[in-house]
Design brief:
This protein has a single domain, classed as 4'-phosphopantetheinyl transferase domain (Ribosomal Protein L22, Chain A, Alpha-Beta Complex). It has seven helices and 13 strands. 42% of the residues are buried. The chain has a five-stranded mixed β-sheet with strand order 2-13-3-7-6. Strands 1-11-12-8 form a four-stranded antiparallel β-sheet. By secondary structure, it is of the alpha+beta class. A hairpin with an 8-residue loop joins strand 9 and strand 10.
Length: 276
């Protein structure tokens, strides 16, 4: 997975936003789902082990376990701790349930992180002291595209203006363009902590032919909090950058409170390799 160059952004340079803060360092590690996920259960706490029992498919279990292993191993590396000693808490801000965006506790609490998985990619992004959202999505099968060139979910994701922008593209470019919108928006919602409680079509980001940026709320955003996705406070504090997770994927990362983000791609194998 490597940073993706966008118009106005040379490869290897930080993504930029409207915030006046310093450049944030974002570390990202990725791996395919780990084989034999049960071999890694020692990294999980009791709540996470309970979640494991609910997975019906081995691949879904492997993705979940790989995400937690990457997160604990990354935080342990950055904090000088054993991964098994890193404590995580997952609590929904709405209902208090054990789901939503996980947070680090104890010595690792100063680090913010975000986990994503799609297809054969599982990744974790980590920043120090700044909320982060990371998203990777697998592209549609190019051999079976929908009639419009866009997946049926587009009405749940795109504003009217964004749909019109995609329809101006050649049909074969619409699905990749849609996934660029999707990953940028989901990265924003993960960074703000809103998750899917906020509809993606309620705010706008730049299109696939432009450098990634949060534009604002759709339809004026009446009744939306200023700090929510697309609100004035969020636009002033959030920076977006596209990623290239590899052929057949799109990715994006969002960071709150930074003026720019410099992405450091690191091999996931450095986290899972046996320590001497």
């Amino acid at each position: 997975m490597t940073p993706l160059s966008t118009p106005g952004q040379e490869p290897g340079t930080p993504g930029t936003g409207s915030a006046g803060g310093a450049t944030a360092e974002c570390h990202i590690w990725s791996l395919p789902p780990l084989p034999r996920p049960a071999d890694w259960f020692r990294f999980l706490d009791s709540d996470e082990l309970a979640r494991c029992s609910a997975y019906l498919h081995e691949l879904d279990l492997a993705r979940f376990v790989t995400g937690r292993v990457l997160a604990r191993s990354a935080l342990g590396l950055l904090c000088g701790m054993e991964p098994e000693s890193v404590r995580l808490r997952t609590r929904c801000p709405g209902c208090g349930g054990a789901h939503g965006k996980p947070q680090a506790l104890g010595p690792a609490a100063r680090w913010e992180f975000s986990i994503t998985h799609s297809g054969d990619v599982v990744a974790v992004g980590v920043t120090e002291g700044l909320p982060i959202g990371l998203d990777v999505e697998q592209l549609l099968d190019p051999e079976t595209p929908p009639e419009s060139g866009m997946p049926p979910e587009h009405e749940l994701v795109l504003t009217a203006e964004e749909r019109a922008t995609l329809l101006l593209l050649p049909r074969e470019q619409r699905a990749p363009g849609f996934m660029t919108y999707w990953t940028r928006k989901e990265a924003v919602l993960k960074a703000t902590g809103e998750g899917l409680n906020t509809p993606m079509h309620s705010f706008a980001v730049t299109g696939p032919d432009r450098a990634p940026a949060l534009i604002g709320t759709a339809g004026g955003g009446e009744g939306r909090p200023d700090h929510g996705a697309g609100g004035p406070a969020c636009r002033a504090q959030l920076v977006l950058a596209d990623l290239d997770p590899g052929p057949g994927y799109r990715g994006a990362v969002a960071v709150l409170g930074a003026g720019a983000v410099r992405v450091r791609m690191r091999p996931g194998t450095e986290l899972t390799a046996p320590r001497g």
